[in-house]
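Quick log. Single chain, no ligands specified.
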Amino acid sequence: MVRVAMALNRTLAALGFLAAAIVLCMVAGILATGGFSQEFFELSPSPAAVAAQLTDQPAHTFGLRLNVGLDNLFIIAYSAFFVLLAVRLRGLLSPITIGVALGALLLTALLDAVENHHILLMLHAFQHSEPLSAEQLEFQMVASNLKFHASYLGAFLFAFGFYRLGGLGRVIAWLLWLYVPLGMIAFAVPVEIVTPFALARTVFFILAFALGGIYFLRDKGAPSAAAPGDHAQEISGPRA
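-> predicted structure:
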């Protein structure tokens, strides 16, 4: 039992570090190719604005494909991480809480994949002289916002499990809880000033996964079962 738990912890650590490394590579790729990425499409730009960014801009086109490719890899990494995290937290959260949290994050992964492949579809169409419509770009914004909204729910619920792990787990829990209001602010502010909040959201991604990797790399114990009545407390607030 202990050996299985340790193997699970090592796998979670590896996936956490991998997810953080992929996000860092995405940021480096964006900076190296002129600061253009799929986040541009999350703000419902006009067809003319898209054309201005992609016409005679090979660095932007390459950077977009690179960023989407890395993001597709990130989807696999974080989906696997949260599936195994659900297994790791079985003794700390109720099955309903884990099921809803995991379902929300798998929905996030699905919407993330839809978003990426829809961007590639639009890029392919543009490069073959097919006009982009405002409806396509509006759909892109809706899909992106739903993706983030689902991730906020999943992160919020899994944070209760991290909190119960104690120590560094509580730091991760607070990062995940703060990630939610930060995302709500990003929804509410005008498009012109959303960039700092999007960057802060990216920092939260990197920190949460990196710290998760550190926690599970250091953790040598198996998850403990929650005491009777604990599950009733996990939604109302963290239990020390």
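The first helix runs from residue 2 to 32.
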